[in-house]
Amino acid sequence: MPTTSHYCSLSELTRTSRSPDFAVCFDDDHIKTWQELTHDTQFLIGFLEQNHYQKIALCTQDSYLFTCMFLASVITQKHIVLPGNVQPAALDELSEQFDCLMVDDSVATIPNEKISIFNISALLETKEFANPIESFPLNQELSLDLVKLTLFTSGSSGAPKAIQKTLVHIENEINELEATWGKLLDNSQVQSTVSHQHIYGLLFRVLWPLCAGRAFARHNLDYPEQIMTHATKETTLVSSPALLKRMTTEYSPKHIRCVFSSGGPLSFDSAQQSNQLLGSLPIEVYGSTETGGIAFRQQWDTSTPWQLFDCIEAALNSEKCLKLISPYIDKFNWYQTADECEMVSDSQFILKGRTDRIIKIEEKRVSLVEVEKRLEQLPWIDECVVIPFEEPERLILASVIVLSNEGRSKFDTMSKGKFWLLLRSELRNWLEPIAIPRRYRILDEIPLNSQGKRLISEIEQHIKQ
Quick check: do 10-166 and 221-356 share a fold? Predict the structure, then answer.
């Protein structure tokens, strides 16, 4: 159960009593207090109650403005929509999903006159709207079951997929996070490299700290050097493999209270390097937008299994894919994933890969995960992504690769054609000819979004070049 003295559940947040100068959010120059949060939220409640909008899209980089608008939307029981992409064209594409769009200065103008757009910061500066609600905190619990939340999957090709949740699902997960790690985090301050627009950032960098009374950073840390500058013994870092793998030994070691990583697999080497630099072996959280958190691990060795959260029940189906009963989805019915696993015990498992990354080429089943694994076993390749690629008359495999230092030296001493032939020759030791990529492109790094998800459409563009 919740362990820290300031903790309250999300439904009780508007009833909690905190001192006016209690620190909620901070940047390098200023601390936002509980009094400022309640005052600004009150004002935004007034704005929402005087307008007819029901589906409120929030799209900001500023976590303080996001929090104020999120709370105002919850209190007024609006349907909250969180676009995963802040680019104008992407927001325009999702415009049918919401009635109005609440932004900050980071979001560019959207070329759609039918969208009602409001800048939260500008609204707070005008003080134009009277507030019919006299007080916040309110003397009643929030009705979370009446508040709908729509998030979007990201990082794959095609249109974003809308995922529907209620705030009861969110509250259940926040309570489990606090029960699992509340004592470890205690009164630390939360820094983050991931966006609150996605489920991981929403929970770990905003709502969990808010409920637990831990001050959180207003803006992202975007570079390894920023992490090292802000690293203290009282810092909890919410990050992803996309950034942690860029941490190198050129930085002097620091000590951080705790490091979380989610959004994709963190290599064993990156985990160990993070531990050396930050004095904290990353806690990896496995899950998805659809499922919420499923399990966690710290890679003490290369075979460390994933540990289910206490509230999750799991089993394998006939194809050895994980299925769940979870209070973040449906506590009565099984949810089937496409993750192939090996159960080590009733509460631990090893991930084998996704079955939806198995394709057929000329009637033969090919695992894209296996092809990537075989490429990354070669001494010349640090990282790669393999995708199916349509040529005019056939389907082939193509790969973008990041060369190791040895690979760059090898490439420089050979012609490009001979280097590709070398890769294919080595792969024949493990793979059938049909499973060997026929196109390769060398990149400095794999295109990922802030959550560590592969940007497949961008990878495809590199392949076409």
Answer: yes
| Strand-pair partners of 216 | 25, 190
Give the pLDDT confidence of 358-382 residue by residue, as tens digits: 787 876 778 898 899 899 999 999 9
pTM of the predicted model as reported, rounded to 2 decimal places: 0.82
Q: Which CATH superfamily is domain 10-166 in?
A: ANL, N-terminal domain (3.40.50.12780)
Cα separations in angstroms, 316 against 117, 251, 330, 333:
46, 43, 17, 14
400, 406, 409, 414: CA torsion to nearest 10: -70
Task: State the pLDDT confidence band at 305, using cuts at 50, 70 and 90.
Answer: very high
Residues in the chain: 465
Is the Cβ–Cβ distance between 324 and 291 less than 8 Å?
yes
CATH topology for 221-356? Answer: Rossmann fold (3.40.50)
pLDDT at 10 over 80: yes
Q: What residue has token string 């490439």?
A: 411
Task: Using DSSP, state whether 68 is helix, strand or coil.
Answer: helix
pLDDT tens readout for residues 90-103: 788 888 999 999 99
Other CB atoms within 10 Å distance of the CB of residue 394: 10
Phi, psi of 112 (to 5 degrees): -150, 105
| Residue pair 219/62 in contact by the 8 Å Cβ criterion | yes
Q: Give, in order, the Cα–Cα distances in Å from 375 to each of 302, 345, 427.
A: 19, 31, 7
* CA-atom Rg of the chain in angstroms: 23
> What is the C-alpha separation between 354 and 338, in angstroms, rounded?
5
Query: H/E element holding 307?
Result: strand 306-308
Q: How far apart are CA 299 and CA 304, in angstroms?
A: 6
Tell me the C-alpha distance between 12 and 156, whole Å: 37
Give every CB contact of residue 232 below 8 A, 6+ residues apart in sequence: 189, 254, 255, 256
Number of C-beta neighbours around residue 258 at 10 A? 19
pLDDT above 50 (res 1): no
Tell me the CATH number for domain 362-464.
Answer: 3.30.300.30
What is the rounded CA–CA span in Å between residue 373 and residue 386? 10
Question: Where are the domains positioned within the chain?
Answer: 10-166, 221-356, 362-464
Residue 116 phi/psi, 5° resolution? -85, 120
H runs (alpha helix) in 279-357: none
